[in-house]
Amino acid sequence: MQNNLEKQINDFLEHLEVEKNSSKLTIRDYRHYLETFAKWYSSTLPGRSISELDLGTVRKYRVYLANRVDMKGKTLKKVTQNYYVIALRSLLRFLIKNDQKTLEPSKIDLPKTESRSLKFLEREQIDRLVTMPDTSKEEGVRDRTVLELLFSTGLRVSELVKLNHEQINIERREFGVVGKGGRARVVFISDRAAEWIDRYRKMRTDVFKPLFIRYSRGRDEEDNGEKMRLTARSIERIVKKYTHMARLPVEATVHTLRHSFATDLLTNGADLRSVQEMLGHKNIATTQIYTHVTNKQLRDVHKAFHSGNKG
């Protein structure tokens, strides 16, 4: 029976890759969550198929997750426990859609977790961060361009690393990307970011296809320099390096710059629908997480009209 569950999980992961066009990172995470469930299920209830799953068993699994210890010896946070349960519900939904009998996923509730405060940088902190690289060197110009482009566009790291030279239209200040879920969108570049892209491209003497390349090891000209392309991990390291150099109070990541991009737009008067489009969010509910930190207009209304402000 366990082999059957493994096959069902693999079928689901193939569905994510082929039909849902999920990223490799998403598929990797779902594989981890579901393999954890499969291992627990087979050891706790040997011989039982997924068709026999019930709410009582799900409750026991949740108790297991609540007591599960990670590699650092810490129990899983509530939000992390929810990721495991969300993956299980997605698997069950897939099985039912394919006429396989199992527990109805809507019966599995997710406990509410404390809303996490969004980390974002103020404009002065952004300026401090982007001026950290040593732009007397080509590698430093690359790093400055990476930081400028992230704040200018709100790109996901997976979108940034895929960029090629020919995609970028400096004159029009825009380029196209295919983001999460295979959704295509136009991305706009600020004047400042465009200047750094132009400077970086002019410094490059190679003919490599990728926009951002590594400098740490020898050059490989095969496949148009594809092996020279910076990885997502490298981009994360670049952001972390300059965050520490700038001594920012926030442990900034690529996603912090994405949050900062959205926050900057909304606090300066952009409407939520436009920001949704620019971020590539499928649902506006995802974009609404920014509204509680972007209340400049509401603050101005309160300041102008609340009687308590008229001293």
Walk me through what this model shows.
Helix 2 crosses helix 4. The chain is mainly α and 311 residues long. It is built from 13 helices and 2 strands, in the order H-H-H-H-H-H-H-E-E-H-H-H-H-H-H. It folds into 2 domains: 2-107, DNA polymerase, domain 1; 123-299, hpI Integrase, Chain A (Orthogonal Bundle). The protein has a two-stranded antiparallel ribbon with strand order 1-2. A hairpin with a 5-residue loop joins strand 1 and strand 2 (184-188).
Strand % is under 5%
The largest sheet has its strands arranged as 1-2
* Helix content range: 40-55%
Q: What general form does the structure show? A: globular
CATH superfamily name of the largest domain? Answer: Intergrase catalytic core
Helix-strand layout with pairing:
Layout: H1 2-18, H2 24-44, H3 55-67, H4 78-97, H5 123-130, H6 138-153, H7 157-161, E1 174-178, E2 184-188, H8 191-203, H9 232-245, H10 254-267, H11 272-279, H12 284-287, H13 296-305
